[in-house]
Amino acid sequence: MKRLIFATGNENKMKEIRMILADCGYEIVSMKEAGVQADIVEDGKTFEENAIIKAEAIRKQTGCLVLADDSGLEIDYLDKAPGIYSARFMGEDTSYRIKNRAILDKLEGVPEEQRTARFVCAVAAAFPDGRTITRRGTIEGIIGYEERGENGFGYDPIFFLPERGKSTAELSPEEKNQISHRGNALRLIKGVIDENTDHE
Ligand code: IMP
Where are any strands of DSSP class E within the chain? Predict the structure, then answer.
């Protein structure tokens, strides 16, 4: 079977992508499994540019079909910060407990209708023939008033889904994958892979 490399070192993302891309006709391997090492500078200005930089760097090394993603949290009241800097916000090594509390402080007294936010995920597919195609998935919510839930990671405890009455840290992994920005982007890119693959 042909190989598809997913450009991440994150095992949780690998699980998610294996579930969503099952039956796509490719064996899905991580960079580690493919024996690829890369120190990639993500200096793009958008989620899409960063995903493209990662996918194309690994395609250049391997010649394989490569997928890469870039994601983050946009808070409208903060002019869409932290956005593409979500991992680096307040320093890469700062705990999310501290980052999340800082965001709650910045939004103190801000009414619900101005607390709108979204998680964004761009996925790039770099094909061996040189084309690169991106797709974006989002999930809309609001910044809550306190941290809630133990599941998920990062900003999940403060990202609240009003229609479910839960933060994304209170969803099971399966529930989150069904509606998440990353799940949505991966399902869209699966369509792109299907359209661009010979199924004879
Ligand atoms: P990356 O795409 O792996 O670089 O992740 C970017 C950053 O965005 C993460 O480190 C988190 O801070 C944030 N982020 C992306 N997706 C999620 C999510 O599903 N929940 C919580 N935080 C997220």
Answer: 2-6, 26-30, 65-75, 81-82, 116-126, 132-143, 159-161, 166-167
Nearest alpha carbon to residue 33 among 50, 53, 48, 18: 18
Give every CB contact of residue 12 below 8 A, 6+ residues apart in sequence. Answer: 153
DSSP letter at 40?
Answer: -
Cβ of 100 closer than 6 Å to ligand 1, yes or no, is no
Q: Which of 11, 30, 86, 166 to mutate to test the pocket of ligand 1 (most atoms within 8 A of CB)?
A: 86
**Identified catalytic residue from 70, 129, 156, 198:** 70
* pLDDT tens-digit readout, 76-119: 999 999 999 999 999 999 999 999 999 999 999 999 999 999 99
What CA–CA distances, in Å, run from 9 to 52, 54, 146?
A: 16, 12, 30
> For 126-142, how does the pLDDT look when each residue is reduced to its tens digit (9 = 90+)?
999 999 999 999 999 99
> Which domains can be identified in the chain, with CATH numbers?
3-196 (3.90.950.10)
CA of 72 to the centre of ligand 1 (A): 5
Give the Å distance between the CA of 173 and the centre of ligand 1: 15
